[in-house]
Amino acid sequence: MKLPHPIPYQGSKRNLADQIMRFYPDDFNRLIEPFAGSAAMTIASAFYFKANHFIINDINEPLTQLWDSIINNPKLIIKHYHDIWHGQHGNEEEYYYEIREKFNDTKKPEYLLFLLAKCVKAAVRYNSQGGFNQSPDKRRLGRNPQMMRDDILRVSHLLKGKTEIYSTDYSNILDLATSDDLVYMDPPYQGTGLNGGFNYAGNIEFDNFVVSLFELNHKNIPYILSYDGRTGDKTFGNPLPDNLNLTKIEINAGRSSQATLLNRKEITYEAVFLSPALVSKIDMQKVTGKQIYQTDLFATHG
């Protein structure tokens, strides 16, 4: 059975979730996603009984309100989506822009769900004033309400009563983490995130983020960081300091969509970094397998 994913999102890790979960420790209780987005790892972890409790956080408050509706009040958001989706027939493009304007005025989660289901490439774009400004995909109507209903109900079943939802700075969420948790981070400002995303992406300072990683290491907190990647010889993302002592793993993410358009055979590799506390809890030889290559174990610096 396919994993449910009611929120489509460019850059979602849902297709890589099974490979990332290879690096989970056996003995943790709570998964924390400070940059949740589509919460792909939370959903996969709940589906495969990898964790019992979850924290979802995203600085984009309408998105976290949408998650709250999906998890805790699924029938209402299903009805809203059904009514909004059916209202577009015969006037699809103009209707989309009307809903976009309503969302920018009200920030209601039901409008955001329709926009995410209908916008070009599920690529979220905001202008400098914080207004959603992505265009509609004119080739399709957006996710069918019946399919959306099924995914929402399944996610609610997986996460209701087990999930805390926040909309705050990622550093506040990291302060909640303990050595018994696992933190999964997919920051929006690295890799393909450099090409767009929420306007808040530029507000996350690289140096501050690195300090947060050092603090996690000091507290002996296990974490996985999806941080950079490469396509062919092109590498994305600023290098992380060697003295974080992270283990870098490259995951084969398949042929890039851009390479396909250009009729090239370039493969995209997504990088994940494992914290020292995590590496100490897992058997690297056991979990390193097909399509996963350990490329660099950073040396300890005095």
List the helices and strands and how they pair.
Blueprint: H1 17-20, E1 30-33, H2 40-47, E2 53-57, H3 61-72, H4 74-86, H5 92-106, H6 109-118, H7 145-159, E3 163-166, H8 170-174, E4 181-185, H9 206-218, E5 223-231, E6 234-236, E7 247-255, H10 257-261, E8 267-274, H11 276-279, H12 284-287, E9 292-297
Parallel strand pairs: 1-2, 1-4, 2-3, 4-5
Antiparallel strand pairs: 5-6, 5-8, 7-8, 7-9
Explain this structure.
The chain is α/β, with parallel strands linked by helices. Helices cover 36% and strands 18% of the residues. It folds into two domains: 17-59 and 168-297, Vaccinia Virus protein VP39 (Rossmann fold, 3-Layer(aba) Sandwich), CATH 3.40.50; 68-152, Adenine-specific Methyltransferase, Domain 2 (Adenine-specific Methyltransferase, domain 2). Strands 1, 2, 3, 4, 5, 6, 7, 8 and 9 form a nine-stranded mixed beta sheet that branches. Helix 2 (40-47) links the parallel strand 1 and strand 2. Helix 4 packs antiparallel against helix 7 (145-159).
